[in-house]
Write a structure and sequence with these properties.
This protein is mostly helical and 148 residues long. 86% of the residues lie in helices and 0% in strands. α1 crosses α2 and α3 packs across α6. The protein is elongated, with a radius of gyration of 22 Å.
């Protein structure tokens, strides 16, 4: 399971480049990542860059929403387990019910941890954001007729 931000980078640049970017981060070669992303983005139109920015903001919001909702998911899990135990169901119903609820919670827990502690994906997304903002600012200045 990949983080939401990791999925964004893989979707925009491909799995192979994502792997290369993570290796370069481990070697502390962030400028190489920036240059590669910048070269890829230079080939896109102004509309594509604006769409990429909207997509980036959407994925960041989704990542934040996963972290923010986890508290409610945990409370819901505790309430569900308590309700199942208080209902005094037979073992044949109680055990599978607890297993299903616990499996769902475990999935959400893994999703939360993966998105909360995805340091390398956050760093790649920040490099992507900087390259994207730089190109958008550059194109705005060119439209207004300013010298670069």
């Amino acid at each position: 399971m990949k983080s939401v931000l990791g999925k964004l980078i893989q979707r925009r640049f491909g799995c192979e480049r994502y792997t290369i970017y993570t290796e370069k981060l481990n070697k502390k070669e962030s400028m190489d990542i920036f240059c590669d992303i910048y070269r890829n983005l230079c080939q896109q139109s102004q509309e594509d860059l604006n769409d990429a920015l909207k997509e980036l903001l959407g994925y960041v919001q989704m990542s934040i929403r996963i972290s923010r909702n986890f508290l409610y998911i945990t409370m819901g899990y505790m309430v569900a387990v308590a309700m199942l135990l208080l209902l005094e169901l037979s073992w044949m119903i109680l055990i599978p019910s607890l297993a299903v609820v616990s499996t769902c919670y475990l999935y959400k827990l893994v999703e939360f941890v993966r998105n909360r502690y995805c340091d390398r994906d956050v760093r790649i997304v920040l490099i992507y954001k900087i390259a994207l903002f730089h190109l958008l600012e550059e194109s705005c200045l060119q439209k207004e007729g300013h010298e670069l």
